[in-house]
Design brief:
Length: about 300
């Protein structure tokens, strides 16, 4: 999900507005039941669910709902329609001087409860997702990486591949901040992250691990495949100069530490070995990748 903090704030504000609008809609339905006053076309018309304020907003934002949680999006649509249909049946009977049906009231209450619970779930999902995403680079941060690590390990095993933890550190980045200032450093980080993202496959998670350090989870069929993947990352970085000002271009490099994940190894252990390999690469001159010895003492 590539959504900025601003976009998320706008979406949450729209979500809160939509909920408040439907609560006012419920108040009008109650007045219809008690005072026998018309609740309006957005209740009584056959396609009222499509013209009420919530329905219009939900249609406009449906793509984002589907991106966040397609199952919840479908259930919201169904609950909203059911609520409208039950309410229309109740109000039509009341305005005709007839008592409402208990089944319609039960449907309304159930559907409204489901709708509000689902909207609260989506709101929590949006806020949680944004809280775990780095606003500078747009990459996910390290929180929750354990779940992705377990998933990637399972997929690698299923496909007969090996999972690699790759620690990536920008070379001499402190010098960039000290020489040009943190605003230039932020621009460099943003463009570096974009280049890094383009160098890995869509199914290979990439995280901003902290500062100028990043972490990738690569799945490779052989050690040679991993070597080529690491070289590809380095080549993309080398060929992606960072333009921070019209007259200022920085040619950044990075050092990679790579660790093949053992069958029973946990994430912390794999990161520790990848980190050790990274610092070995720094000591050896930077701008390279180093593969850590595996748990049996072999490099692969």
């Amino acid at each position: 999900m590539k959504t900025s903090t601003y976009e998320a704030d706008v979406f949450v504000q729209g979500l809160d507005m939509a909920i408040a609008t439907h609560m006012d809609w419920t108040r009008r339905v109650l007045r219809c039941a008690v005072l026998r006053t018309s609740p309006g076309d957005d209740v009584l018309r056959p396609q009222a669910h499509a013209i009420c304020r919530f329905g219009l907003w939900f249609t406009k934002e449906r793509a984002l709902f589907d991106l966040l949680d397609p199952e919840a999006a479908q259930r919201i649509d169904c609950a909203h329609r059911a609520m409208h249909e039950a309410t229309r049946a109740l109000c039509v009977r009341v305005l005709a001087g007839q008592p409402g049906q208990a089944a319609d009231l039960d449907t309304f209450e159930t559907a409204q409860g489901d709708l509000l619970n689902l909207l609260a779930r989506v709101k929590t999902l949006v806020l949680t997702t944004i809280a775990r995403r780095d606003p500078l680079t747009g990459l996910p941060m390290r929180f929750g990486i354990e779940h992705e690590f377990a998933h990637c390990r399972k997929e690698a095993t299923r496909c007969g591949e090996r999972l690699y933890v790759v620690m990536i550190d920008i070379d001499r980045f402190k010098w960039v901040n000290d020489t040009y200032g943190h605003p230039v450093g932020d621009t460099a980080l943003r463009q570096f992250a974009a280049a890094l993202k383009s160098s890995v496959r869509e199914d290979e998670p990439l995280y901003r691990f902290g500062g100028e350090e990043f972490l990738a989870l690569l799945r490779c069929s052989t050690p040679d495949c991993q070597h080529k993947a690491s070289e590809r990352i380095l080549d993309v970085i080398r060929s992606s100069p960072v333009e921070v000002d019209p007259g200022l271009t920085l040619n950044l490099t990075a050092t990679l530490g790579v660790a093949s994940v053992g069958d029973q190894e946990d994430l912390a252990s794999a990161i520790e070995r990848a980190d050790a390999a990274l610092y070995e690469g720094k000591r050896a001159g930077r701008n390279r990748f180093v593969v850590a010895p595996d748990l049996f003492g072999m490099t692969g």
